[in-house]
Amino acid sequence: MNRAAWPAAPAIGAAVLLAIAPFVLPVWMVTLLGYIGLYSIVCLGLVLLTGWVGITSFGQAAFVGLAAYVSALVVTRAGLSPWLSLPLCLVATGLAGWLIGWLTVRLSGHYLVLGTMAWGLGLYYLFGNLQGLGGFNGIAGVPKLRAGALSVADPRIFHLLVWTILGLLLVAAYRLADSRAGRAIRSLRDPIMVESFGVRSAQLKLQVFVAAALLAGLAGWLHAHYLGHVSPSPFGINASVDYLFMAVIGGTATPIGAVLGPAVVETLRTVLRDAIPALSGVGGNYEAILFGGLVIVLLQRASGGLAPMLARWLPAAPTPRAPDSAEPLPRRALPQAGSTLLEVRAVSRTFGGLVAVDAVDFEVRAGEILALIGPNGAGKSTLFNLVTGVLEPTGGEVLVAGRRVDGLPPRAIAALGVARTFQHVRLRPTMTCLENVALGAWLRGRAGLLAGAIGAARDEEARCLREAQSQLDRVGLGALAEAPAGSLALGQQRILEIARALAADPALLMLDEPAAGLRLQEKHALAALLRSLRAQGVTVLVVEHDMDFVMNLVDRIVVLQFGQKIAEGPPDAIRRDARVVEAYLGGLDD
Ligand code: ADP
Ligand code: MG
After folding, report:
1. Contact 558 CB / ligand 1 (< 6 Å)
2. Distance in Å, CA 564 to ligand 1 centroid
3. Ligand 1 pocket, 125 CB below 6 A?
4. Which atom of ligand 1 is nearest to the CA of 512?
């Protein structure tokens, strides 16, 4: 069982209640429920986009509007059935989403937000001013959805239609969360990390942007053929802010937040709108003020939105678990022992006037453990980043298994069998250890966003989770598979990063200061692990400060100082090297 099944019992209960609701509740409540369902579809897109990826979009209402106008136009002008216009709506919003996404997701922070705002505003005025769209009065007389005797002119039918669609979408969203693509999407806030395991982060972000646009488009189509009338005002920037607002109140971390937000906001709004004038006998905007106050209180009490509060009342969500057995993922053919796996030729890197790495040469041979040591600021991490593609050299060449890799992006180098850990741990703290490690196996799977959402590729998923569990067992963290990575001690987090790198089935494992922050016993265990990896044919390049750790473990050492290589050889020779002793060992015990 995994979280895809969550919250199974409460969900079935809610589904049953929603199915009988239209037959027992008064019409105004059924109508309200219909709107809640409609808004939830848009907010679900915001959970993916804002909650998972971290993109704040002020343009979702414009996608809703685009679909509503497209459908209203083709149905009223061409006499097409509303059902047949749905694919057209999806194509239109998908294309628009792709274009807007392509233009904006590469932008960072404020520019991205401004980009979505520009889109939201631009389309609003276009709707209002374009000839033939009825100006700000819009298009009336849009046919309502009907099937035989059933028509959405009856709010009960609309309610059932919307909630059926929403239910299916929620199931898909939960499935996606616990899939290969979902784990990567939920990690996109750290693009350097995901790229170093082979994820095309910009492409995946764009896919999420399009998915969110499609959800908005679906809602727009429903809107047009429920109300029978489209005009620009429900699709302006205010509406986009409203959607964001509802999503944030519901909680953007989990799909259910997309339903809670609209449910609470719309119910409050309706109740206040009706109750306040009745109470005080005066109309006006009092309800808006009271509403704003309630929202502030709510966000103060629950900054993550309502979903985490609700989760406290529900049975604990089971986290993904690996099956006891599954066919192993395919393995990489390891290079022949002793052959040159990594070659660094006269590599340099300058930062402004500072030469951080100065014409360094060395090679790593398959099957050995090589240490790169040197005092703080010697250039070790820079060299590490030059090899892994995070930085580009200003001179020289880097070759992996005989192929030039300098200038290639990290994901391309990862594909050649280079896996790494980070000096400053880069884990997804709220994802479990198992999920974090499974991300390392990205390049050993294929299933994308759609496959994840519809639950195809279950076999691959099982194999991937099995692999992640095996790597956790291998490093001794097997019992913590279901713990959030952020709950581990720093030393354990470093080991967890090694497990994630191992899940990539690397030919070359690169570790940046793996022993930092480990206790003595943990260091011994780490050394034993690295020795056993070497025995299994994994080549290791380790950047390290801890001299004892390195001396008793590695085959060869390369010493850097001020960006230059000052010595290279087996540990015993390095220990006796006068230049190393003078330059480095004296100042080592910092
Ligand atoms: P080490 O890992 O051996 O401690 P680094 O590779 O981190 O050393 O740094 C080598 C030198 O390059 C240092 O002087 C550091 O200040 C400088 N440096 C590293 N990264 C950058 C950067 N992005 N911009 C400017 N200077 C940098
Ligand atoms: Mg460093």
Report:
1. no
2. 13
3. no
4. 2
Q: Which residues contact 561 (CB under 8 A, 6 or more apart)?
A: 374, 375, 378, 583, 584
Q: How remote is the CA of residue 378 from the centroid of ligand 2, in Å?
A: 8
Nearest to 255 by CA among 556, 416, 418, 43: 43
CA distance 158 to 561: 71
Q: From the CB of 66, is ligand 1 less than 6 Å away?
A: no
564 alpha carbon, closest ligand: 1
**Cα 533-563-346 angle, rounded to 5 deg:** 75
- Residue 585 pLDDT: 56
> Tokens representing 6?
């969550």
**Beta carbons within 10 angstroms of residue 424's beta carbon:** 8
Nearest residue by C-alpha to atom 7 in ligand 1: 381
Whole-prediction pTM:
0.92
CA 72 vs. chain centroid, Å, equals 35
Ligand number nearest CA of 423 is 2
Read off the pLDDT of residues 121-163 as tens digits, 9 standing for 90 and up.
999 999 999 888 888 889 999 999 999 999 999 999 999 999 9
As given in the structure block, the two tokens for residue 296 are 């502030």
Establish whether residue 351 lines the binding site of ligand 1, counting it when its CB lies within 6 angstroms of any ligand atom.
yes
Q: CA torsion sign, 433 to 434 to 437 to 440?
A: negative
CA distance 40 to 30: 15
Residue 208 CB partners (closer than 8 Å, separation 6+): 48, 49, 52, 53, 55, 185, 188, 449
